[in-house]
Write a structure and sequence with these properties.
By secondary structure, the chain is mostly helical. Helix content is about 60%, strand content about 0%. It contains twelve helices and two strands; from the N terminus they run H-H-H-E-E-H-H-H-H-H-H-H-H-H. It has a two-stranded antiparallel ribbon. A hairpin with a 5-residue loop joins strand 1 and strand 2. The protein is elongated, with a radius of gyration of 32 Å.
């Protein structure tokens, strides 16, 4: 009986391992040639990105790199960030923008109003013309563009300054209460409760009404800042309570680091994300508070322009000159909306648990 010689078969059995052999399969650890078919069930190697797309985030990316990458992927956030930067630039350059328009915010233009119609602006849409880009005020003829850009400077200055007071005071109180605990925590927590339970709006109105011959911007900034710190202090206190028993904090304490070094080097960086997100959400509230106080007549006094003050003065003319009411209202709405959208996005990225219940 003649023995049959087996013929070598080049086809790999299903599920067979791709080991080094005479069949030409790649050795373990080697890179397969381009275009080679992979074995069934094997995970294909990632192909190089020929389109130049941005690679995925590296595991060691910092929170700020992740935040920047996330913000770039949200069109609404990009638009709101551009609006915020535009308002900040407008507030910083308000004197030059007013000079570019050719009018100061206190300058009257009697030629732009009709004295026989109760001082109504001449022309359509509230007197919009090449001389007055956003029209003029009724009766006085003051340029609305100059008053709006200077009003942005006043509103954002008060909002940013009051927010800085709130963030510094609230962060310091929250970290101290959460880290030291005991009597310090009890005293600061009761002070937070007392301040939050106080009718702050009524007190602000009363205090601003009786104050005479003072700098209204400084007074409003101080009063708003005094009543705004407990909210962020509570957030920081809760974060500090969860951080002070972490391993790296215990290691720093055992290594001989003092409280000040631990608070500034270990605790503060850990609470910076929620603080920044909370700060961005505070600014639109501060802008609205300043506008409300000026609307009620206890905020910025004329002739200093303010969006809230302009809206209050325009109420008497909303039927005969609606543009006088619309223009400052649109600027106030856009500023609050842009800061709110940006703050919401930063909170979702930097403090994802803070916005969820």
């Amino acid at each position: 009986m003649t023995a049959t010689t087996p013929v070598p078969d080049d086809r790999a059995a299903p599920g067979a391992d791709n080991a080094t052999g005479l069949d030409g399969a790649p050795a373990p650890g080697s890179t397969p040639a381009a275009g080679a078919a992979s074995a069934p069930g094997a995970t294909p190697a990632p192909a190089p990105d020929s389109a130049g797309a941005e690679p995925a985030a590296a595991p060691g990316s910092s929170p700020w790199q992740l935040a920047r990458r996330e913000l770039r992927g949200r069109p609404a956030v990009r638009v709101s960030l551009c609006v915020v930067l535009l308002f900040v630039l407008m507030a910083v350059t308000a004197p030059w923008l007013g000079a570019l328009g050719g009018w100061s915010p206190e300058q009257f233009d009697k030629t732009a109003i009709d004295p026989y119609l109760g001082g109504q602006p001449l022309g359509s849409f509230g007197g919009i013309s090449p001389e007055h880009w956003l029209g003029v005020e009724p009766v006085t003829g003051r340029d609305l563009f100059a008053r709006v850009v200077h009003g942005a400077q006043v509103s954002l200055l008060i909002a940013f300054a009051a927010t800085a007071i709130v963030v510094v005071a609230g962060t310091a109180a929250g970290i101290a209460a959460g880290y030291f605990g005991g009597r310090t925590d009890a005293v600061l927590s009761r002070l937070m409760d007392l301040t939050m339970s106080f009718p702050s709006l009524i007190f602000m109105i009363a205090m601003l009404s009786v104050a005479k011959d003072v700098n209204r911007i400084v007074l409003m900034t101080s009063v708003i800042g005094v009543f705004g710190w407990p909210g962020i202090a509570r957030v920081v206190r809760g974060q500090t309570l969860s951080l002070k028993h972490r391993e790296y904090v215990d290691a720093a304490r055992v290594g001989g680091s003092g409280p000040w070094r631990i608070l500034t080097r270990d605790i503060l960086p850990g609470v910076s994300g929620p603080v920044i997100a909370y700060t961005t959400l505070l600014i639109p509230g501060m802008i609205s508070t300043e506008a409300a106080l000026s609307y009620l007549g206890v905020g910025v006094r004329p002739p200093t322009p303010s969006w809230g003050q302009m809206i209050a003065e325009s109420v008497a003319y909303y039927e005969t000159d609606p543009m006088y009411f619309v223009i400052p209202s649109v600027f106030l709405f856009l500023a609050v909306l842009a800061f709110t959208l940006l703050g919401d996005a930063l909170r979702d990225i930097l403090d994802p648990r803070g916005g969820r219940t």
